[in-house]
């Protein structure tokens, strides 16, 4: 039981594994992914680097569902995908994943996101943001995701010296 | 109504806003964030770059809740935070945020994550991953988050030429 040496010829033990990229993938109720991509462009200036779509299955379907749209945002890549009712559920049951975006101008970023259709939750506040920065605003997008718009992270502890 | 020009002296209209970083923040039911950090280290080789904690409030509390742990992983930063029952809910109601990790060795990465306490969901499959890569495995971590372990993204379309 306690010995699991390499019994079934696994991939050379569980040695070094290195990861080349981390990409949050936002699942959106089909067929709203295309709209979500448009929102992330308008709200945050995301740039779409590519998109793959499912084969069109239904005659009445106006546009094919998005398997994955790759969006460049703040030096990272996020993926936006349609998830249909009948597809394998990928719903996480974690307490919730939030996306922190750092910017020098929190107020302007929140205003821009709101003008694109996001909903500001609460005021921009100073301080105890988990991003460890200065000012923090919160915007919920039309697809249910929460974005924290934060001042760039500083070394913790030197808040308002 | 339709005129909103710059009525209340907003921050110089809603001009250019640039973002310097995007950091997914995983909320974990308090006080499990510290355990989650340990899991992400063991499972994925994440490196903790910093941690801020809440002031200790309760005598019986063994360790202070984590406001934010900054983990370096695959060239990105993720934040892991305790979220207490009585704190402002940040729960997103999106259809679900999944984290795609790209690696050359999907099988080894899945095996390592499973040996650290993750649960593999289904087999590693070839193909239609939303990450647009070759092989894709899925691991749910003990905190409810789903990780897709994928081959590095290629240009879409040249799958198995």
UniProtKB/TrEMBL annotation, chains A, B:
Keywords, alphabetical: Lyase
InterPro entries attached to this UniProt entry: At5g48480-like_C (IPR054575), At5g48480-like_N (IPR054576), Glyas_Bleomycin-R_OHBP_Dase (IPR029068), VOC_core (IPR037523)
Domain VOC residue range list: 21-152
UniProt KW Lyase keyword: yes
A GO MF term: lyase activity
PROSITE patterns: VOC (PS51819)
Pfam families (alphabetical): At5g48480-like_C, At5g48480-like_N
PANTHER family: BNAUNNG04460D PROTEIN-RELATED, VOC DOMAIN-CONTAINING PROTEIN
The protein's name: Lactoylglutathione lyase/glyoxalase I family protein
